[in-house]
Amino acid sequence: MERVQDHLKPAVLKKNFFSNIKQKKHMDQQINTMIISCKHIAFIADSANIFSSKSRIQSKNTMNLIILIFLLCTQVLHVSTHDILILQPFGSRSHRFALVPIAKQLGQHGHQVTFVSTYSFEDSIPANVTEIAYTQFADYFKILQGITIDLGQDGWSIDIMKRYYNYHSDLCQQFFESRLLQNWISSGKLFKIVIIDSAMHECILPLWSFVGQNIVIMNTGLLNPWVSDYMNVPTPFAYIPFIGSPHNQHMDFFQRFVNTVYWILAKYVTRLSEDVFYKNVVLPYFPNSKPHRETLNNISLALVNIDPIMTPPSPSVPNVIRIGGIQCRPPLPLPEGKLKNFVDSSDENGFILFSFGSVIDGSLINEKLRNTFIAAFAQIKQRVVWKYESQLSGLSNNVMTADWLPQQDLLGHPKIRAVISHGGLQSLQESIYHAVPSICFPFTTDQPSVVEITSAYGIVIKMNPYSVTVEEIVKAIDKACKDEEMRKAVQRYSKIFHDREEDPLNKAIFWIEYVMRHDGAMHLQTAAVGLNFFQYNLLDVSALAAVIVFLTFTLCYLGIKRLIQTLINQVHNISFKLKMA
């Protein structure tokens, strides 16, 4: 296991980087040696079988040995390991949780994995996984948390867009200037595959060709419009609610109209902003980088952390792989200490887990909402484990705070009764995985959509974070802890969540290795990649059809008009002749 911080140990980075090459060469030599050894052993065994004069049973045993050796050698011949780069230097902890299992599993498969993230691994990792932590970016993340809270309260504005642009450009420029990236590019070494987090890492996408041979993106939330757009995923606006929309898949006429406007604006405003960002931020550092649109068209696969419960059933394409709940796992025993004693010693009323995830720091919520929670918790019988990143006063004896919590281990604890969260996709996936009722306070991004969809199933209680009262919180907690119908519903959907044809982690690993085996997966792309907006939506065909229909009706109209005029003229002529006669 290697843990490296880019700004602290640049020399170690270079050493680790080039040592991976030596390790791979050494592994290849070992494989070749094993193959030769297998051949020699098989030859000896075969000779023993031919010249042996022993009993029939001994010959049979020898033949079994030959078959066993042959099977082992066949497996060795199929061993193929590669250098893999996972880039997530700007992402939140929650996004990282979806990529960590992938990194570990790829390492266990023998691949040399380099994982670039903002945070370090909390537990052990395979020896062939090199971890590079940009810990200096963690302070920047607090800026994003403030933007997120303001966005949820005030909506999109020019000021928020400027703040987000400045935040994103600062991070990108620091990464472009890092010794790590410069060393990779100057070395000329290419990773077999580069896996990039799609959220907030758009500036890195055009650089993949400098450091890798193939590119895969990871979408940890709902299928974003900018991902579905460049992966050419069909998005029927009639029943796919826009991310952040407070609607589920069943919309009336007005909701469908607003939903359509949101989707179209998001797709084309995103395209425009990406082009502007590419020209202003990426090109000054990398003038030889490929155009942004060309980069997007070269993506082999998109791994998307969605499932049929959190997202409405929808059409897809072969190169979008759904791996919903990849971060979910069975609970582990809580380590000895204050937290374990607090939850284990709770009475029959159990305890409640309260966490707004990693994107929304509990200490950043406004004072009114914070005091509302404190007052509500003082009135309930359950104990509360509250993820809160700073000191908090005025708490009742049934409340414990901590700046970090082992969420899945608490969700799987036998005494948990409910969870209070922000309604993030991964948080809700984990609560459904462990069959725990949820009380959700959606703030922004995909949270309103996810909460709206799951609340319709009766497994989530939706709350308004800006107007909630003490009485409403107490009532919601009482329902989540005692309502038998809600508990049965969450158990039913948990069973559905678990019932799938393949484990999401194994599915992700298969497709990543599939891309490496075939040196890309461009054959999975649909022909839509070469169509523009008018062609893809058949607007050109519709226009031609409209012209044909118009011309047909026009010709018919003119023909009928002329026929009628001719008949009228003939009638006039006949009348005139009769009068003259």
UniProtKB/TrEMBL annotation:
This chain belongs to which protein, by name? UDP-glycosyltransferases domain-containing protein
UniProt entry keywords in alphabetical sequence: Glycosyltransferase, Membrane, Transferase, Transmembrane, Transmembrane helix
Name the Gene Ontology molecular function terms of this record: UDP-glycosyltransferase activity
Q: Which family does it belong to?
A: Belongs to the UDP-glycosyltransferase family.
Q: InterPro entries, per this entry?
A: UDP-glycosyltransferase, UDP_glucos_trans
What residues form the membrane-spanning segments?
62-80, 541-560
Which Pfam families does the UniProt entry name for this protein? UDPGT
Which organism is this protein's natural source?
Strigamia maritima (European centipede)
